Amino acid sequence: MADALELDALWAEFHSVVNMTSQELAAWLRVSDAADAAEESQSPPEHTGSPTGEHVLAILQKRRIDLTDDDLDVMYEVVDTVTAETDPEYVSAHAPEHESEAAETRRRQRLMTLGHDPHRPTA
User: Fold this and answer.
1) Backbone φ/ψ region at 49: left (φ over 0), alpha (ψ -120 to 50), beta
2) Which of 51, 61, 69, 75 is the S-S candidate for 14 at Cβ 3.0 to 4.6 Å?
3) Nearest residue to 112 via CA among 14, 15, 13, 24
């Protein structure tokens, strides 16, 4: 388990990059999962969303004191992924100006599965 200062910093950074509420994320995971099931012509599964997205949702519903080591691992992963994919240098290198609207939509959907809506203004 991380020390108190490291945990405080991770908690703040996680909640900074995860800019969707737990209700918004839960709704998004249901919608995205239903769309995936429809594309694959399957009936909707009992659990919705990606495993990481579901874990992010569970973390959002926890108190800091209740975090597990697995929670911390997911929090670090989400912070690293969102930070990298929203860094202007990364975006310009991996998403040229001629990038298709479909590619941008997939990028946004991938980030939203982690609880980050890149179209939402930052505070």
Assistant:
1) left
2) 75
3) 24
CA dist., res. 49 & res. 54, Å (int) = 6
Nearest 5°: phi and psi at 117? Answer: -100, 110
Q: Rounded to two decimals, what is the model's pTM?
A: 0.79
Q: 39-90: per-residue pLDDT in tens?
A: 554 444 444 568 999 999 999 999 999 999 999 999 999 999 999 988 877 5
Distance (Å, rounded) from C-alpha 1 to C-alpha 89? Answer: 33
Neighbours of 110 (CB within 10 A): 16
Cα 69 to Cα 74: distance, rounded to the nearest angstrom: 9
3-state secondary structure of 57: helix
d(C-alpha 18, C-alpha 43), whole Å = 30
